[in-house]
Amino acid sequence: MLAVEKVSRIFQGGKAGFKNVNLSLEKGEVVGVLGTSGCGKSTLLRVLSGLDENFEGEIKTEANDPNQAFGMMFQEPRLMPWLNVWENIVFGTGKKDKKQEAFELMKTVGLEGFENHYPKDLSGGMAQRAAIARSLLIRPEILLLDEPFSALDAFTKMQLQDLLLDIFEKHQTTTLLVTHDIDEALYLCDRVIIMRGQPGRIESQITVEAKRPRKRGDSYLAELKQDVLKELDFTKE
Ligand SMILES: Nc1ncnc2c1ncn2[C@@H]1O[C@H](COP(=O)(O)OP(=O)(O)OP(=O)(O)O)[C@@H](O)[C@H]1O
Description:
Structural class: alpha/beta
Distance between the termini: 40 Å
Bound molecules: adenosine-5'-triphosphate
Number of domains: 2
CATH topology of the largest domain: Rossmann fold
Radius of gyration: 18 Å
Strand order of the largest sheet: 5-6-7-3-8-9
């Protein structure tokens, strides 16, 4: 579905956000990107989404409509305060004719009954639910998630992770999830890519062989977590 070949992002002045990234995503695959701060994860997502076009290398997608290939979601919901929830979902994507679909998606993300509420009246979790619905409205073939739950409390985070699982199951959306949360990556993803360094590079990857839904805190996931910590140099011998 997505092939990234020798992609680098060099900023003005010569500083690199990340260098020589090779990556491929199969249709329906959920891939996580873990890495220490500053290794270029957000820059990579901006490049993939088309928000940043100043990159070197090649990005190929098999999406039917390249203009609607990517749905993007950020750490913060980025809702417009003067629009209510359904308007944010519809106008945020420029799809004025999709009000009915927006209402369906609000049901999917658990916002039924809150369609006419304004962002100031939503909790952080509800606002991120609206952002999920907005990112799905264009029916993206590839979903790019940039630390989508890192600003939420632990319980809301787990609820929204489970919501994502339902969405993966229902829509089979190919997904790239940038996160700092190792447990989140291992709970949700088929494969976890580990980036390191400045400029960042892909150092290794770990395949999660367990079927979804997985049990949180499962001993197999705990073992994989140790492997990830080792890759990131966070284990003490
Ligand atoms: N517009 C820019 N101009 C120059 N350097 C930039 C620019 N944007 C990002 N960088 C640099 O590129 C590197 C990667 O930044 P990026 O935000 O992608 O890292 P990250 O892995 O997402 O970090 P974090 O986990 O802290 O969000 C950093 O060193 C950052 O300072």
